[in-house]
Fold each of these.
Amino acid sequence: MRQTTPRSAPAGFTLVELLIVVVILAILAAVVIPVANNVSNEAEQSSFATDVSIFATAYELYFQVNDDWPPDSGSGAIPSGIDKYLRASDWTKGTPLGGVWDSEKDSFGITSAFGVHFMGVTPKPTAYMTQLDALFDDGDLNTGVFQQIANDRFYYIVRE
């Protein structure tokens, strides 16, 4: 008489087990992604605010030495002479928000300003830029030292 050994089930996971794992991973992703995105936004805004602080100091130093504000420059181009007061690479590398740095003098009704010109790059949403404005002053992009001066331009006003 021949003995048969009982068949064992093939090794592996059942469909239900796999679905449970996928659902758990989806729930974790739903929790982690918004937190990571918020941290990224905060880091971006903090880096931008640091750059603005450095550039504002450079503008003030330029004015003290030259009795005038840095000249208007093309978007992405460093204003002539300001490189004595800051590293040119900090200006020309672009902003942490995307877009490029730009200097304005005697335009848009402002004596001297610098800021981000998004130049064809989709600007950050208004709510995002309003949060950024709150780091500098009043959280209103129409007033104060940080303003939206055109659809794709957000500037720190050094002198009105």
Amino acid sequence: MKYQFLNKTDKDMSNIEQFIDEFYPYAQKRLSIDKPVTIILKSDSDNAKKILGKTGYYDPDNLEVVVYVDNRHPKDILRSISHELIHHAQNCRGEFDDSGPLYQGYAQDDDQMRKMEMEAYLLSNGDDLMIFRDFEDKMKKEKGMINESLEKKDLEKKIAEILKQKQTKNKEKPQPLQEKTQISDQQWYQQELYKKLAKKWSK
């Protein structure tokens, strides 16, 4: 099921579109999406200035995922798209059929909508299936950006180098003078002899 991409900003979002081209088939299969969706990127400078401004929303009636892009890192935009696609998958399952209108605070007032919102957080990038994170790691491995065995070897090599440098520095440092706590047998004998002679001749 193909998606439609609309860039309603004045910015070049081709990097986001290119990523979605790879991500959407993965998400579609993982989430069993069986209805077309339109992914829309919007710009809203006033919204971007608000600390608690909107990052995106899903319109179940028009099957639209809308995400705001102003002053956001591309990865953050992609996470929002992933989150809203969970809601689209819920809509494909018919879970929006009996829901009321989506208003501010619906996740606190409506138990069903709250459960759906929780699922979207968990599945998109939380502790459950982690749709976006799994795809990100899969893509990095395929493109050679992640090589766990090499990373481990590199780490072990760096640790060995640091330890070697530390040992070399310690050898180069002048060692502090230490008090002699042990004496040889000959020194002990001489000291004892001196004590006895001193005692004898001091009488």
Amino acid sequence: MTRHSNYRRVKIHRSYTVEEIARLMNVHKNTVRNWVKQGLQTIDRQKPILILGSTLSCFLQDRRQRGRKRCAPGEIYCVKCRAPVQPAGDMADYRPINATSGTLMGICPMCEIIIYRRVNGARLDECLGKLQVTIPRDQLHIGDS
């Protein structure tokens, strides 16, 4: 089971019952009933409860967007804390992956794990904010020495 239900599995021109949605999204029927209480609109108030596919798709997309947290310049997302944070000491390392992109690495000040943020090398200055970034110089390979 995934944390977020995939809204792309919903056929928008079809109506679904609570049980069909539960099977389609691989969640319990009570989860779908909670979605109705949280604002998922039904076709009418009669049983069986019917929900339009287009309404369900929009509801799931909105739920996913509400949970997203964008990183501001100088922030890296911590998976354990589930929030964007400033790395400890405002310090990070940049590790190039290829010619165009790399990874910013820092330490979360709350849970003290290593946090990562993938960045475009050309747009690195936009992501830094007031971070002090160390960029390792090219290391020699054994064959070059």
